[in-house]
Specification:
Blueprint (H helix, E strand, L loop, with lengths): L1 H8 L2 H16 L8 H21 L4 H26 L16 E5 L14 E5 H7 L15
Antiparallel strand pairs: 1-2
Helix pairs in contact: 2-3, 2-4, 3-4
């Protein structure tokens, strides 16, 4: 009974919505998106603050884990946005990706082969290109054009 009172203080949806607002506010500063380091620092700070808020509300640990999983899924979406903002070019076929909705995250070193699910191991690609690459290493559909 005590646990349900604590959980009812902040629902998962409210927590995720608050995290989205905190994230949007953090990345609205153009300097955040300039470098990978500043982006990672901002995201980890927002995430850490969100977990601290849960601890301050005395939300039980098992519920905090569920909320943290929801935040992790939001971080995955933010990785796609960051990579698209940084360079909207498919890293497999080297054609421009028109819309962020057409972009997918491709793991450079596939997770199925021991690659990490970290931003350093991710690149942006068209959905079809990503499917063609599958879990291959060093797969390129065409060579990038040389810049003069």
């Amino acid at each position: 009974m005590e646990t349900s009172k604590l959980v009812n203080r902040i629902t998962k949806e409210e927590f995720v919505q608050q995290f989205k607002l905190d994230y949007a506010l953090a990345v609205s500063d153009p300097r955040v998106m300039e470098t990978y380091e500043s982006y990672c620092l901002t995201i980890s700070t927002v995430r850490r603050d969100a977990i601290r808020k849960l601890k301050a509300l005395n939300v039980p640990g098992y519920v905090r884990i569920q909320y943290n999983d929801a935040v992790q899924r939001l971080a995955e979406t933010s990785h796609r946005k960051y990579l698209f903002h940084k360079d909207p070019t498919c890293q497999i076929c080297f054609y421009l990706i028109e819309r962020i909705e057409d972009a997918t995250i491709d793991h450079i070193y596939p997770v199925s082969r021991g690659g990490k699910n970290a931003l350093e191991n991710k690149q942006i690609a068209h959905g079809k290109c990503n499917v063609l690459k599958s879990d291959k290493l060093n797969f390129v559909l065409r060579k990038p054009s040389k810049k003069l």
